[in-house]
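To close the chapter, one final illustration. This time we ask the reader to focus less on the individual chains and more on the assembly as a whole: which components sit near each other, and how the overall shape emerges from the parts.
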Amino acid sequence: MRIRLSKQTLQVLDALLTRPGQWLYGYSLSQSTGIASGTLYPILMRLDKLHWLETRWEEAKIPGRPPRHLYRLSGTAREWAREEIRTAGEQRFWKTAEHEA
Amino acid sequence: MSMAKQESSVTARMARWVLWYAVRHWPEENREWGLALAAEVDEPASTFDAVRWSFGGIVLFTRSVLSSLWSWMKLPAGSSLSGGADGPSLLPKRSRVFTAVVLAGAAMLLILPEGREAIRTVRSSWQGYQLSGSDARMLEELAARAEKERDAGTLAFAALSALDRTRGAAWTERAVAMDPQLIWVYGARNHGPSIDPPKEEWLARLQAADPGNAVPDLLAADALAQPRLRAFYEHGGEKEDPHQLMASDGNRMALMEHAFKAPRYDSYFQRHYQLARTVWSRERNLPPTVVLYGMRQHALPNLLNIRTYSEIEIEEAKKARESGDPKRAESLLDGVDAFGMRMADANGMEIEKLIGLVIARNANKEMAKLYQVPGGTEDAQTAAKRLEQIEGRVQGVRLTLNPSRNARARAFRREAFFVQAFGSLGLIAGLAALAGILLLELWPGRLRNAKTIWWRAACWSADYAPATVLLACGAFLLSFLPFQSAFEEYRTSDFLLGDEQVLTEAMRSLFEIPTYVVGVDAAVEVWSFVTIGLSLLLLFVLVRGFRRIKHTAANPV
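The assembled structure is written out below.
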């Protein structure tokens, strides 16, 4: 499935692909990409709607705090995400974090 | 992931509280994401990061609310985002967006200056062109501004239109003090037994300032009659013969005689008209009612008193003729004729012209009798010719005053029907739309489950009433254009009194339907309709009962 992705979406996909099977918190994604919550969550919502994202709730480790939401890319979505990132890199539209490093 | 130390500054706590408050009101369909975002708000270590995270949450909340609202707007009235409708046939066909756009279009039309003027005028016509509370407040503001800016003309206008007699009198005094040229306002502000008692000092000053004019003397003569007139209005009693009443009052007779001999007749209507026109062309937001009310309240000398005095004079001439003193008779009749023609030729109201012509006609009729003597043939022919001319003018003025015989007035009456019809249709459709939409939005479950005719009526109203409102508003404005053009013609006119007639005819035509609807005839018709309606209902019940009995007899099981 080819969709039009923004630079910020590619950044989020790149962050999710860094450790593909691992569940990530929203705040840690925000920290690693530098994207503010008001932009990050609409991206996550969109990816979820496209079924690229797997989500689950985790009970809080500190009593009294609310459960936290976790995210990771689904199996098929990982391939699509890599393809999208590669295409964007070829078009010099975007560089991955590895390239920037 | 390490658990960051929670920032506990007041700002951070406030930011967290705001975010959690927003989550409580988050739209249901994506509240999960609001909870997910808010669950992370304890993670940022610094106040700045906590506030930034919360701010992002508020942005997302706003987007979610707007998105949810848009989705809700795309559904028909009575339906919710979570669904739950019994079926599409029980919901209106049009979406909320369509309804909102159509109603906004109607509102836009009515907000236009022409729309506001149309509403003000039609509303006034249903209030009998009486000054409303908002009109009175508008006049107060106008007078206050005029006093501040030392604008004597506008203050005089407010004084002439004011309903409150104390304020009207105070504004009159201040306007004349600012500009002594406006002393005529003393004579133009209405002096009636139930409106505004005449002020002797005003009339005395006016008589001194305008000595060649008959009107101040006539107003002073009317003021002398006021106490007896007021006593009659307040306590009733046997009506006295006006001729005897006037003839028995030497002071009144002297004033009337002086007025009839005065070289001019000016009831200041032309000046009032010019003042109203000038102020209205500057203050375009003034409702036509305010202007027309002031003009209608313009003080005229008592026309009955004028006619009574003329009849006394003509009777005196008749006696002189019969006693063989034709010179005195001629002199008296000439005086009455000249006064009548001065009234008819002055720039006053049509009714003044008519009374002036009638007085002159009566004097000339008596003159014709005076000349019916041997040797008076030539004078008799001259008198007959003059009588014919006056009669022609009388018919002309009567034609102007009779709306049913005046082509322009007839056209206004026709157009007024459309204005009132479309205005009423717009109002009824607006109320129907409001009722339908409120029923669907406030009690959707109850009505939908009941499947009553009310639910269908509400759906039908929500579908068609807004479009009817838009169409009716458009037609209302279009049909009001001739009236708007009449007002504009009046405002931009070059001091011609004919324009005042256009304004009066326009306003009078709009007034006819409300008078008819709320008048005595309407009451009779309403009860006739109620009687017919109840009779039909009774007939329906009887026929239905009869058919049921017949049906039961045919099918006993």
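The two ends of chain A are 29 Å apart (CA to CA). Chain A has a mean pLDDT of 86. With these observations in hand, you are ready for the problems at the end of the chapter.
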